[in-house]
Write a structure and sequence with these properties.
By secondary structure, this protein is of the alpha+beta class. 51% of the residues lie in helices and 7% in strands. The protein is built from 18 helices and six strands. The strands form two sheets. Strands 4-3-5-6 form a four-stranded antiparallel beta sheet. It has a two-stranded antiparallel sheet with strand order 1-2.
Amino acid sequence: MESVINKYIKAPVETAPLAVFRILFGLMMFFSIVRFWSYGWIDKLYIQPKFFFSYFGFEWVKPLGVYTYLLFIICGLAALLVALGYRYKLSIVIFFLSFTYIELMDKTTYLNHYYFISLLSFLMIFLPANATYSIDAYLNPKKSFEYVPSWTVNSIMLLLSIVYFYAGLAKLNSDWLLKAMPLKIWLPSKFDTPFIGGLLGEEWVQYAFSWSGALYDLTIPFFLLFKKTRPYAFVMVVVFHVLTRVLFPIGMFPYVMIISALIFFDASFHEKILKYLSKFLKVDDTKFNNQKVYQHFSTITSKMKMTVLIAFFAIQFIFPFRYLLYPGELFWTEEGYRFSWRVMLMEKSGYAQFKIVDGESGRWFYVDNTDFITPFQEKQMAFQPDFILEYAHFLKNHFEKDGHKNVQVFVDCQVSLNGRLSTTYIDPTIDLGKQRESFLHKNWITPFKDEIKGI
């Protein structure tokens, strides 16, 4: 056990992999913010809507009106400073807080890779990623170290491995493996894809994509770990993520994963990248060759940081399995679905018509959802129970302020999952205005009328 601790936690390794990761991560996040702004998504997603769906416990996190643009500026500048390694600790903290705030403003925009970036930036707060090839290390020799403890590099590898492996475990279900769902729905629509478009309507191709996707996620971390298989594994990483980027509109996630996978390569590989960068920027890199070793176990503060990181990874291992605490089919109820690396596993669509009843007069009417939420929000709301409940409470409060008494809110909601016929999703006799959001099971979701076997 002691030899394992010494090898994977305490043993000094070259700082180059951390420096390359910091530079590429910071640049990727900076360009992601610029891209988001240039597409007009800040205005479309955070300025124009009248209502925003909140995460339970984070209802206080809301867009800041026109100041939302300032939040994105701060986030983008922080990402750039992270890449440069200037006032790194402050910069990565500001990036983590600003990016996570953006992520929490409206859960309609939830994506697994946003969550991944928040986790990764939180982890980077505790890493000496500015120990070399940074402005901090260049200006202050006391912050310059040629070697760091191996856990600082291995922790990034571990987080990436969790993401991949858990995504693979999630694919071990009967819909994905035995029915090729939802790829059987999605792939035929990509018939215009160059070279392979004509094959995507073939059933055997859809099954091949399903099985190879599960196999890839389950095995790629291990192939990246071993030196002999690493080059071939990285080629697979590039091919897999470029292909998913071509086929599906999932933003910057493929590029983030490709760049992140470089952390598995030996320090000599990263040294070559840094040498080329130094030559290109005409930086004297000899200042960073000081043979100094970063000590991270010498103070009480350092030990407290390690305790936080141990807790952090314990949560990453356990949290995706919280769905086991809930009854019913996970894909149907979605209780424990988010934040568990279940990536593109289902095609779910719904229809939700809300009925407002005046409890005193008995008069009722239907709500036109377009009066309150955007088409994108309505699409997401119609098949996610926590969205439906939050929206129902909003409607209750709105119409009570409008003069109606003892408002009751009912919904006629029909949902289809992975090509199945639409069925009633929410008990239409339940007054949603009386239901309260919590971590408990929502017993007003109707039972799933089929079975999906698997993890």
